[in-house]
Each structure stands twice: as C-alpha cells, then as structure tokens.
C-alpha cells in the first residue's frame, strides 16, 4: 500500500482535492445560509482554499508532476481542474505559464506587468479571462438556480472563485515578482519566510516561489522540503 501511494502520490492528492471540492460545494449548496453566523464566512474561505487547490493542481499538471509517466492522464487531470475553476482552458494556460518560466519578470512574461497592484492584476486578468468563460459562468449560474438558492450559488460557487483568483495572483505572482530589480537571483523571484503552515494556507506553498522556479519539477506538496533544504544549507 505504501509503495502504491509513493508511486501515485500526485494522482491521489489531485483526486483528494477534486473530491473535497465537489463534496464541500455540494454540501454548501444545500446549506441553510445565515449571514449572522461566522460559519458562513468560514465556509467561503474553505471553498476559496479548495478553488486555489484546483488551480495549483492544474499548474502542477503543466509541469507534468501530477501523473508523471502518464502524459494523457496528467493532461486530463489538469484540464478537469482548470475547467472547474471558472472554465479556465488548460490548453490556453499551458503555453502562457511556460512563457512565464522562460521569460520571468520581463516584457515577454504574460504574467508580469510590474508597478501598481491593481493595474498589474487587471493586466493579469486580461491574459486569462475570456468572453467564453464569462458566458459559460453566466449560463451555469442560471442553470444552478433551478436547484439551489441564489445566495448559496453566489457565496459558495462564485465568490470563492473570485477570491481564489486574487489569492493566486497576490501570493503566486505579485509578491514573488514585484520589485524585480531588487532580486539578486537568476529567477527574479523572492520567497516567503519559512513558515509551512502559513505557506500552505496562503497558497499551497507557492509563496516559496524562488524554490518553485529553481525546481519546477517539484510538486506543490514537496516545496516545503526544498525550503527546508535551502534554509539549512545557509
């Protein structure tokens, strides 16, 4: 059993995130919402975290580490995870992300703008949000209304995807690559201080961003080990 888990860890973790996303969302869509209860807002944050997990899994698939050795399965999982996150298209994300790694924090980097946070985010969003996505989200919203209360759909399906987008941008793009002229490393990336709990909660260890650019073949759940190695090596 241990050998099976070690061999297929990426697939198992990806499936766990998918099952958690579906299960929690299904439960929350049926939940009696109370705006006076702090549990409502905690539930929004939990769904936001799971949405972020979907995108991080799709991202790992772009590096071939979800199902290494099985390219078709790797791409399939990446496509599903990206699609569940507001109908992102994996085939469109893939080349842009590899351009980011190849030309990080330059004019050829599709993720990079620099300067003001909001202008940078707007530029970032334009790269990845399409009219087709918006139309599909709108159609799905109206379809879901046939079965679930509007407030549940907005709170637990729509709002978390927006919050997760900000979360991914802030911790995975803006913080690591702002002030690129101050970065004294070849990846033009900074990194969070070592705090594994916060690194996981904030963005599945992607605040350890220098570590990711230095070893893009490491899945998200191994980045903390690389952080430990670098810290101990100093």
UniProtKB/TrEMBL annotation:
One GO term of the biological process aspect: lipid metabolic process
Keywords annotated in UniProt: Membrane, Transmembrane, Transmembrane helix
InterPro entries: FA_desaturase_dom (IPR005804)
Domain Fatty acid desaturase: 38-121, 124-226
Regions that span the bilayer: 12-33, 39-61, 73-90, 117-141, 153-175, 195-211
Protein name per its UniProtKB record: Fatty acid desaturase
Taxonomic source organism: Rufibacter latericius
């Amino acid at each position: 059993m241990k050998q099976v888990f070690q061999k297929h860890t990426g697939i198992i973790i990806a499936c766990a995130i998918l099952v958690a996303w579906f299960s929690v969302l299904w439960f929350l869509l049926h939940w009696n919402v109370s705006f006076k209860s702090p549990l409502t807002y905690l539930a929004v944050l939990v769904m936001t975290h799971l949405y972020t997990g979907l995108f991080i899994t799709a991202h790992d698939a772009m590096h071939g580490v979800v199902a290494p050795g099985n390219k078709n399965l790797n791409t399939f999982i990446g496509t599903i995870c990206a699609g569940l996150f507001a109908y992102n298209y994996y085939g469109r994300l893939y080349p842009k992300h590899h351009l980011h790694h190849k030309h990080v924090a330059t004019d050829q980097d599709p993720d990079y703008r620099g300067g003001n946070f909001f202008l940078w985010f707007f530029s970032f969003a334009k790269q990845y949000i399409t009219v087709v996505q918006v139309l599909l989200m709108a159609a799905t919203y109206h379809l879901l209304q046939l079965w679930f209360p509007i407030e549940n759909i907005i709170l637990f399906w729509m709002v978390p995807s927006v919050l997760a987008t900000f979360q991914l941008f802030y911790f995975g793009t803006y913080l690591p690559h702002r002030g690129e002229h101050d970065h004294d490393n070849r990846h033009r990336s900074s990194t969070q201080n070592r705090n594994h709990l916060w690194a996981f909660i904030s963005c599945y260890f992607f605040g350890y961003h220098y570590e990711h650019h230095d070893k893009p073949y490491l899945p998200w759940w191994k980045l903390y080990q690389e952080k430990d190695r670098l810290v101990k090596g100093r």
